[in-house]
Write a structure and sequence with these properties.
The chain is mainly alpha-helical. Helices cover 52% and strands 11% of the residues. It has a three-stranded antiparallel beta sheet with strand order 1-3-2. Strand 2 and strand 3 form a beta hairpin. Helix 1 packs across helix 2. The radius of gyration is 20 Å and the shape is globular. The termini are far apart.
Amino acid sequence: MPPTLRQGVVPRLRLALEILTEQPSGMHVQQLWARVVADLPLEAHEAVLTKSGRQTKGENNWRWYTSDAVLAGLIWKQKGVWRITSLGRHVLAQSDAPEDLLEITRSALSYAEKHRAGYQYATKILETAVPPGRWVALRLRRPAPGRGADPRPAPAMAHP
């Protein structure tokens, strides 16, 4: 069977997350990619430049998969700096198998897609209820001994 671009992505995605765990303040994507390919070099079919000529097919494909990891809540990206989330750390700790990471990412994406309308509604409420420059602290109620969780939300406080 001929090699595919996907084959190299999964181990590189896992390696990127592992590297990011060592960088609490995050890492610029170009530095991260350089470290990833230093440890897991591109195969010949991955080293071919894309039509734009700005990156290899291997890097391009890897970036698409990291976008899925962002949507799944594993990575946070801002202005070229990437950070692993606490969920990303948790997922890494669950399994050493790169394919498991891909399955977890797909599962999280499926859940997010299924509940997209609810997330969009919650976002809209928060954007209109909380003025710019303020934040909201939510406190979860602890279940009473011998009872399930209290379904009522705890009071929230808006902070400047």
